[in-house]
Amino acid sequence: MHVDDMEDLDELDVERQLRRVLAGTASTVSGEGVRQEAITQSVARRRRRRWTVRAGIMATGMAATVAGLVAVRADHSPDTISGPSSEPTTTAEPTPSSPTTSSTTSSTSSTSTTPATTALPEFPPELTGLSQGSPAWALYLAVAPQSDSPELLAADAAAGDAGYGSGTGFSNVGCDWGAPEALGVSSDWYSAAVYFETESAAEQARSAFEARGHPPVGVVQVTTYCLD
Amino acid sequence: MADFDEVFRRERTPMVRLAYLMLGSESLAEEVVHDGFVALLERWDRIDNPGAYLRRCVVNGCVGARRRARRLPPPAGDASADLGAAHLTDVLMGLPPQRRAMVVLRYYADLTQEDIAETLRLPVGTVKSGLHRALGELKEALSDAR
Q1: Among A86, A117, A125, A144, which Cα is nearest to A211's?
Q2: Are B143 and A25 within 8 A, CB to CB?
């Protein structure tokens, strides 16, 4: 296409040229650098990391359950108390897109006198379609000076587990105006964050992450930049 | 449903090309697509439409990556690109990430406005107006280049 051809351009001309240029530009890459083995390895690493975190949470939860049973036994006669089921009661983790699946429990509990498992708080929907200069409530899951720090990776995995972000990764804290001051970190630091429309949604998400063993750094009202 | 191997073989190159058009960097595009496939494989049993899920991951990943990298250089373009094509590419890369995503999804991936809205989780009206504005900007920039 020559610039001289652009006289009297109408929308169809632009669309036609656009299709041709995009197809031509795209054809210069093949994507051979994306390897299936590397994807499988990444998934295995993330699963191992999550297993480690969940094992820690389970140990804490079991200790709390034992403490709870001891307390209950102190208040009730022994013949009214059933011990914990041989299989643990599990709580399904809700996702923002499928709230109806939240807080369901398996039917493996033995009797109604077993101490009930508290339902975990649900994850509210995130704010999608961030735009330049727009307000948002940011929930910072982790901040760190290096983009490859373990806390950022763990926070990213937790956000992915919750159904947030679809792998959006990390951004500079400075891209969110108001965040460096509120968090007390340099604007060059990196953050793993999820964005919400309202403060209450951000606080609900904070509670949901806390309940799953991932205490966030904080909630900040920000203006989003670096999107232009 | 197709198995993961089949989806990988079918979608790898188109997704990297889509990401490349949005990011202007082949290595970054491959990184985003890698992350998209990781997310897909992790949730494989819970996903009805792997292709649509992967595309959403890649597009969202590209928007996020643009935030990280702030401004990236435009794609090099094909070897036969002339002045008009190069200028069009420059203008495209100057659009805000979300509007650029709309243009790439519409005119490269051939998605309908409804599918673009679903991918970007935006109202259809926002996609329509975004595409209209983007085309206007591209047309104006190309006319100015004369």
Answers
A1: A117
A2: no
